[in-house]
Every structure is written in structure tokens, then in C-alpha cells.
Amino acid sequence: MRIRQVFNRLIAGGSAVLLTWSFYAKVAGKTLRKAADDLHLVWIILAVLLVILLILIAEYLERRRENNLLKLFTKKLEEVTQEQKTGHVLVDKQSELYDLGQAVNHVQSMTQSLFKDYNRQKRGYLGLLEYVPIGVMVIDQDREIYLSNHYLDDIMEHELDMVHELYYSALAEFDIVKTVEETFRTKQDQRAEIKVNLAEQTKILNVNVVFIPVSGHHFFVMLMIDDVTEQKQIERMQNDFVSNVSHELKTPVTSIAGFSETLKNGALEDPGAANKFVDIIYNQSLRLKDLINDILSLSRIGTNMEVNFKEVQFSQLVSDCALAYDSLLDERQVVVLNKVPAKMKVQADPGKLKYILSNLVQNAVRYNKVGGKITVTAKTLENKWQFQVSDTGIGMTSEQQGRIFERFYRADTSRSKEVDGTGLGLAIVKEYVEVLSGQIKVDSQLNIGTTFTVILPLISENNS
Ligand code: ATP
Ligand code: MG
User: Fold this and answer.
1) Which residue ranges does UniProt annotate as crossing the membrane (predicted)?
2) Which atom of ligand 1 is nearest to the CA of 290?
3) Which numbered atom of ligand 1 lies nearest the CA of 294?
4) Selecting from 1.10.3720.10, 1.10.287.130, 1.10.1740.10, 3.30.930.10, what CATH number does the domain 240-300 have?
5) What is the rounded average pLDDT for all residues in the chain?
């Protein structure tokens, strides 16, 4: 096309020179040869060469302009594929590249609108993913992150929103990567429960990997991670609770069954032994009753407990509690010093307050030294009031103090072994304090004594 064009132009230039030549011959009434003599052949040749030169220069300039345009088109197309926004190229309608220019501009408009749609859709998916309460990461077939949500960052305790990064350098958890790789290898969905040691805590994660075929060899792998640490802990606690309860129930029941059988098999005939065995059966049945009551209290706490406020004369409540443990106090030669101001009245739920106070006083007697003291004090603070039960007993290590509010926890001391208890008392106390929107603290020193502090909101009569 281009050669023919140059050739045409050369023919046109040559023809122009020949026409001038023959026109001169005609006007001068001479033959062509004579006219050539007149015009001097050299000039004609020079004219022809000049025309050719001008044509080549024009051709060169045109070619350079077209080259520049082609470079511009290439750059445009590159920019378009890289999602850069650029303006259209303007091409002269007469130019041979006009159609190409129009096509490039069209491709550019189409691609830009496709990218716009794609980004809008991607933002939509991401928006949806942000509301899904599990960690999600979509990985492309080159193992690069396609998208991931913030919930995953929270679970993994670091930023994972690194699009186009290799997923395993961002995730870097061996067992999770192994599960994802299994999906890449088998093209099958995978599921696993994985324990990971993260900077802040050890977590149990439910990992689901889904293979998503798109077309031909094109596919995505979607990783979904759910943090089930808390759920697993609750399950473990429930299992522990059931096995602890069964264990605790078994001891008195076995004892009652064993001694009744002994009585039945003849021990009734021996009044001394019979009395002893009946005492044991009676005591064990009391223990069973306490245990069942504790378990019932615990099960009630979970179900929206009702709180009934009444005016309570706290000093009186302390005296009543001390009286209830009179024989135990005598046995251990422990005295209770009631230092609560006699006129102090508080608005509280009497039943729950009594339960909390009795349990603390009972422990203070149980875990006291023979001849020890228990001091109960109370005072009002700004918007709150507090009472303290202090003893001069065996005390606790800081590790034991950290665990005493757990269900069934009993410190492994010789005193605990002597005392019949289930380890549920303080667990219930804590739950009751929380039901009353209060707080309980313990402060103890081994062999010196223990102080429990209960802080409760100060409720005026009108609010109760
Ligand atoms: P119960 O369910 O009958 O109350 P318990 O007294 O063993 O049994 P908690 O009241 O929950 O259970 O107490 C848990 C443990 O905390 C006790 O076994 C004891 O080891 C320790 N403890 C509680 N109070 C004191 C205290 N005042 N001094 C020393 N240790 C205490
Ligand atoms: Mg107790």
C-alpha cells in the first residue's frame, strides 16, 4: 500500500515535470527535443530530482507522524490494561490511521467501563464479606490473594489485606497452609480444626477450604476461618462440670449405699456401730443436699435471675450469719468481730446478699486457724458501698487466689482435705455478685490470712 502510494506520487511528480516540458514546447511551437535543448536537459533532470526529493521529504514527515500516532496508540492500550484513566486520541479524519484511532478509543472506553463495573462488583463483594462474621480469603490459581476481609485480620491478629501477595507469605501458619495446599492438589474442599499459637493467645480455628472452578483451568480457592476458641472452652467447661458433678455426687451416694447395706446385713444388731453408721449416712445426705442446692443455684443464675431490693440492716445480717455458724465457730474457737456501723442500712436483695455473706463467713471459719479471728467491716463510697470479710487463717498463694472462683476448684491443702466442701461456694458467690452488678476481690497471704472485698452499687430507695 505504502510502496504504491510513493510510486504514485513519484509518477505524479514526473508527470508534472513532463507536462511543464510539453507545455513549454507547445507554447514556443517547438518540438520536445528542441524545447529540451532550450530548457537545458540538466535543469529538467534537476527539476525531476527536486520533485523526487520533496516527495521523499513529505513522505518521511508523514511516516514520522504516523509512527508517533502508533506509539501513542500502543501507550494508550498499555495504560488501559493497567487500569489508568486516559483521554481519547484525536486523529485527523483524512489520516489512514483514523479507523485504527477510532477502534483504540472504542476499546479504551469499553475497557474503562468494564473495569468500573468490575471494581464496583468487587467492592460489593468485599462489602458483603465485611459483614460475614467469619474470616474469608479468596486465593487465585497462582496462589495470590484476590481478596480478604477484615475479620480475618482480627482472627489472625495481623493485617492480611495484601492483594496480589502470595497467600502463604501473608498467612504463614503451617497447618492452615497445608490444608489450603491440599485443596490446590486435590481440587477438593477441605475442613480442619486447627490450633494456632498467635502473639496474643492460642486459638482454635475451624478452617474450611472450598474449591471454586470458574472456567477451563481457571479456578479460585476460598478459605473460611471461624474462631471457635470460646465455644470450645465452654464445651470443655460443660464437660468438666458434668464429670465433676457426677464425681461429687458419687462419693456421698456410694457412702450412703455402703453403710445402709452394712446396716441391713446385721450391723443394726450392734447399737454402737448402728449409731455411727446412721450418723455417717445422715452427714452424707446433708452433703448431698448441699451439693444439689449449689447445683440448682448455679443453674438458676444463668436464667435471667430476678433481683428484689429491700432495705437491709447490714450489721444485723452479719450477726445472723455468725449465729448460723455458732457451733462451727465454737469448735474452731474462732470469733467474729462485727465492725459494721450499727445504723448502716442499704438497699439490696436480702436473699442474695445473705448467700454471699454466709459463704464468705463460712470459708473464713473453715479455713481459719484454731483460735483465729474474723472481722467484718462495711462502708459507703461514692455511688457504691462495700463490705470486707477478713480472717487470720491459712491464706492462699497467688496461684490459688487466681482460681478460687472456678467451679469445683479447691486448693490442695491439708485443711481443704479435712473440710467437706464441693468448691462451688465461691463460684456461686461470684455469679451472685455479678447479678447484683458488683465486684468481688480477694487479697490473701499464705499463713497470715485472707480478705474478701465485695463492692456493690449504692441504690437509693426510690430506684429499688
Ligand atoms: P463449698 O462449695 O462447700 O463452699 P469450698 O469451700 O471448698 O466448698 P469455695 O468456697 O468455692 O469452695 O472455695 C474454694 C477454695 O478456696 C476452698 O476449697 C479453699 O481452698 C479456698 N478458700 C476459700 N476461702 C478461703 C479462705 N478464707 N482462706 C483460705 N482459703 C480459702
Ligand atoms: Mg466455701
Assistant:
1) 41-61
2) 3
3) 2
4) 1.10.287.130
5) 87
Distance CA 258, CA 399 (A): 37
Per-residue pLDDT tens digits for 197-229: 988 889 999 999 999 999 888 999 999 999 999
Which whole number is the average pLDDT over 22-43?
A: 75
User: How many Å is the Cα radius of gyration of the chain?
Assistant: 48
Q: How far is the CA of 367 from the centre of ligand 1 (A)?
A: 7
Mutational pocket test of ligand 1: of 401, 404, 413, 418, the residue with most ligand atoms within 8 Å of the beta carbon:
404
The three-point CA angle 217-215-212 to 5° equals 85
Residues 6+ apart with CB under 8 A from 423: 406, 407, 408, 409, 410
3-state secondary structure of 163: coil
Query: Residues with Cβ within 5 Å of ion ligand 2?
Result: 363, 425
Phi-psi region of 222 (alpha: psi -120 to 50; beta: other; left: phi over 0): beta
Least confident of 160-169, 301-310, 406-415: 301-310
Q: Taking Cα atoms as reference points, which of 377, 388, 382, 309 lies closest to residue 346?
A: 309
Helix (H) or strand (E) holding 242: helix 229-264
User: How far does the centroid of ligand 2 lie from the alpha carbon of residue 449, in Å?
Assistant: 15
User: For the domain with range 133-227, which CATH number is right: 3.40.50.300, 1.10.275.10, 2.40.30.10, 3.30.450.20?
Assistant: 3.30.450.20
The matching CATH number, chosen from 3.30.1300.10, 3.30.565.10, 3.40.50.1000, 3.30.420.40, for 310-463 is: 3.30.565.10
Cβ contact 156:173 at 8 Å: yes
Query: CA-CA distance, 239 to 247, in Å (whole number)?
Result: 12
Whether the model clears a pTM of 0.90, i.e. scores above it, the answer is no
Q: Which of 251, 426, 429, 446 gets mutated to test ligand 1 (max ligand atoms within 8 A of its CB)?
A: 426
* Domains of the chain, residue spans: 2-112, 133-227, 240-300, 310-463
Partnered with residue 193 across adjacent β-strands are: 206
Cα 384 to middle of ligand 2, angstroms: 26
Ligand 1 atom at shortest distance from the alpha carbon of 393: 28
Q: In the numeric block, which cell numbers belong to residue 53?
A: 526529493
Pocket of ligand 1 (CB under 6 A): 294, 363-364, 367, 391, 393-396, 404, 409-411, 413, 416, 421-427, 450
Residue 314, by phi and psi: left (phi above 0), alpha (psi -120 to 50) or beta?
A: alpha
